[in-house]
From TrEMBL:
Protein name: Gfo/Idh/MocA family oxidoreductase
GO molecular function: nucleotide binding
Positions of the GFO/IDH/MocA-like oxidoreductase domain: 126-270
SUPFAM superfamilies noted in UniProt: Glyceraldehyde-3-phosphate dehydrogenase-like, C-terminal domain (SSF55347), NAD(P)-binding Rossmann-fold domains (SSF51735)
Domain Gfo/Idh/MocA-like oxidoreductase N-terminal stretches: 3-111
Domain of life: Bacteria
Annotated Pfam families: GFO_IDH_MocA (PF01408), GFO_IDH_MocA_C3 (PF22725)
């Protein structure tokens, strides 16, 4: 049985815990931001507390799930790999490209599996679109565009550790959710972003000092801090083959809870996917439009494998995360499944984010590093 330690005890850590249990793992420890929160999480989950990173060696976990604030990822991933564990690290893999590079290299040197939960790859219809792209159904890409919109940061009362660049890194909205969109675009289309032109917007200039749990509201009477990470971003890009694209990222779009949406327009056909309605995709041509529904009895091998519920029984984010974790554990046991996002993909996301941040600062086109 896979022995798992989770570093972090917030909303996403709970998602990791449930997916680990669904994959048959045994949670052998949890560590939060301080001793009191660690003990509280341990009591809530019914697992032993891990009081320091040095204790990871004694716990002898097979896998460490890193769900801590972004600025701690470098230290936490290093400690986990040094202790001999494989690692699932929340994105961003690190807040600086050089740190992401060092973590990816360390995982290779120590022969440890390292993965990053770009879990939207695990929607069955995303895999179906990818297979159809591979088969040439869409033709040469004409335009790649979309958005990822949320509203959980809309209220000036809401705060989170991500608001402060010291904890979350120099980018918030783009690094947090824009990275998902870019990963999914490249995964489905096979295109690679070569250069970007970006602009950031801070729509709420001040937020409460204390950090609220993600997707919750803070105390309206708390002291405030100046926000130094973006609420929204607009990014235009060109791919290495010359295709034009654009994406709008926002955490302040009223009514949008978690709407990752894309339209990929090819010379023969276009495709539209909406993560809030993942059971269908729209396929368009000059002569007809069709709606393709998820069906475990139809489609590509990957789409069928990831359809864990019968047609008409809606599956979504939770099942994506469960499949991602199960595929990570399978890779640890030597069974590599196609499409698993690894530290290589985490490093790729860090390089794109670095170029986006620099473009927003300089107001110029910036090349994405390929080194």
């Amino acid at each position: 049985m896979t022995r798992v330690v989770i570093l972090g005890a917030g909303m996403i850590a709970e998602v990791h815990r449930r997916a680990a249990l669904a994959a048959g793992a045994h949670i052998v420890g949890v560590m939060a931001s301080n001793a009191a929160r660690t003990q509280s999480a341990a009591d809530r989950w019914g697992v032993p507390p891990v009081l320091s990173l040095q204790d990871l060696k004694e716990v002898a976990a097979d896998v460490v799930h890193v769900c801590s604030p972004n600025a701690l990822h470098l230290e936490h991933v290093k400690a986990a790999i040094t202790a001999g564990a494989h690692v699932i690290c929340e994105k961003p893999l690190a807040t600086r490209v050089t740190d992401a590079e060092s973590l990816q290299l360390l995982s290779v040197q120590r022969r440890r599996v390292g993965t990053v939960p770009f879990v939207y790859r695990y929607h069955p219809l995303v895999r179906e679109l990818r297979a159809r792209v591979h088969d040439g159904e869409f033709g040469r890409w004409q335009l790649l565009h979309g958005s990822y919109l949320q509203d959980w940061m809309l209220s000036p009362r809401v705060s989170n550790w991500r608001v402060d660049a010291r904890n979350g890194g120099p980018s918030r909205a783009f690094a947090d959710i824009g990275s998902h969109w870019c990963d999914l675009m490249e995964f489905v289309t096979g295109e690679r972003i070569a250069s970007v032109m970006a602009s950031f917007s801070v729509t709420v200039a001040e937020r409460p000092v204390s950090s609220a749990v993600s997707f919750t509201h803070g105390d309206p009477v708390e002291p405030v801090m100046t926000v130094n990470t973006e609420d929204a971003a607009s990014v235009m890009f060109r791919t290495e083959s010359g295709v034009l694209g654009a994406v709008v990222i926002s955490q302040v779009s009223a009514g949008r809870k978690n709407r990752l949406w894309f339209e990929f327009d090819g010379a023969q056909k276009s495709a539209v996917f909406d993560q809030e309605n993942p059971e269908t995709v729209w396929l368009g041509s000059q002569t007809s439009n069709t709606i393709l529904a998820r069906d475990p009895g139809q489609g590509s091998a990957d789409a069928r494998r990831l359809s864990s519920l019968p047609a008409g029984h809606a599956q979504g984010y939770a099942q994506c995360f469960e499949h991602f974790v199960a595929d990570t554990y399978a890779a640890i046991n030597g069974e590599v499944r196609e499409g698993l996002p690894t530290f290589v993909d985490g490093l790729r996301a860090a390089r794109i984010a670095e170029a986006v941040i620099e473009s927003a600062r300089s107001e110029q086109w910036v090349a994405v590093s390929r080194v």
